[in-house]
Specification:
single chain; alpha/beta; Rossmann fold; seven-stranded mixed β-sheet; five-stranded parallel β-sheet
Length: 340
């Protein structure tokens, strides 16, 4: 049974690649779509930022599979350059699809998309789709966050666990609240400290916030942002990664990671564009466990007692069967603070 939990992340990613391969095969068999799709990535932050990194990995996999021609620009920022980059790319390169992140650039993305109706805009966004060509997605990984919270609640000895997140926006709040709910389900005595660093990518500030929580008695911590795992490793406490399998950062520290897989989303969009069937839509379902877009990364069984593993496996089965649904709570967690 433990093997099933441990292999969830690997299975989901392999299955996603198979879907992508099948989509590419269908497209190439059609003489009208024998050329590769041109795909551009437009990212406000660096590719090293885990959220962006998940998207980039999925697009790189599609390019490696021969499905697309892929180029990208990162570190675009939030000062007006996003709209310029998108307009220039549409005019010069005429990509079939642009993937990117619209957070902090919502208006810029939609303004540019309005002048590029022949290009599919597929962006991470807190808003809805915009006709005719803007689809939206996000990391809907609250389900594995709940399971990770169960592990954290069962592993803490101080009954104090921590979360260091980006900022109190709905997209981050829902992961934090799911983690808290899972922890309290496993351990009603648990107290959760939540700190927001007011940045999507600032490892130094995230590490500092984590160290402050550890000094206050936290002995298990959720690294919603990069930089936290390093603090946990330094102080010898357990940590949970986010977005992708982050065990390589500190193998003896990371229990598991709340993993996001963009391969199902990418495969679906490319297939729709290749068939000429693309429409603006909300793609959230492709980032949930049911479609293979969310999972727990491999669990370090050396750190987790067998009875706790069994509880998590049982809860995972209930989620997958549809019997148990993890609540989507996007309110700011009670008692949370902001760094600085």
């Amino acid at each position: 049974m433990r093997k099933n939990i441990r292999s969830v992340g690997a299975f989901v990613f392999a299955a996603g690649l198979l879907v992508a391969a099948c989509g590419g095969s269908d497209s190439s068999s059609d003489s009208s779509s024998s050329t590769k799709l041109k795909v551009f990535g437009a990212f406000a932050t660096a590719k090293e930022e885990p959220w962006v990194g998940v998207i980039d990995v999925a697009l790189q996999a599609a390019e490696d599979a021969g499905t697309i021609e892929y180029t990208a620009v990162d570190k675009i920022g939030y000062d007006g350059d996003m709209e310029r980059v998108l307009r220039e790319t549409c005019q010069k390169d005429k990509p079939d699809v642009i993937f990117g992140d619209a957070f902090g650039n919502e208006e810029a993305v939609r303004n540019a998309a309005g002048d590029c109706p022949d290009t599919a805009f597929v962006f991470g966004s807190g808003g809805g789709p915009t006709e005719p060509n803007v689809s939206v997605f996000d990391n809907w990984i609250h389900e594995p966050a709940y399971l990770a919270g169960m592990l954290a609640g069962g592993l803490t000895k101080s009954n104090k666990i921590g979360i260091v997140g980006a900022m109190p926006i709905p997209e981050v709040n829902r992961l934090s609240n799911a983690f808290i709910a899972g922890a309290q389900f496993a351990n009603p005595k648990v107290e959760v400290k939540v700190t927001f660093i007011n940045s999507f990518f600032d490892p130094a500030t995230a590490k500092e916030a984590a160290l402050a929580q550890i000094a206050a008695g936290v002995d298990v911590i959720y690294a919603e942002r990069a930089g936290v795992i390093e603090a946990a490793a330094e102080k010898g406490i357990l940590a949970f990664g986010n977005m992708s399998d982050q065990s390589s950062i500190a193998p003896g520290t990371v229990v598991t990671s709340v993993a996001w897989n963009m391969v199902p989303t990418v495969a679906y969009v490319l297939d729709q564009v290749a068939k000429g069937a693309y429409t603006a839509q909300d793609l959230k379902d492709f980032s949930m466990m049911g479609k293979g877009g969310a999972s727990l990364a491999p669990i370090n069984e050396k750190l987790v007692p067998a009875d706790l593993l069994k509880k998590v496996q049982d809860q995972l089965a209930l989620i997958q069967s549809g019997i148990f649904r993890v609540d989507i709570n996007e309110a700011q967690p009670a008692g949370s603070v902001q760094a600085g």
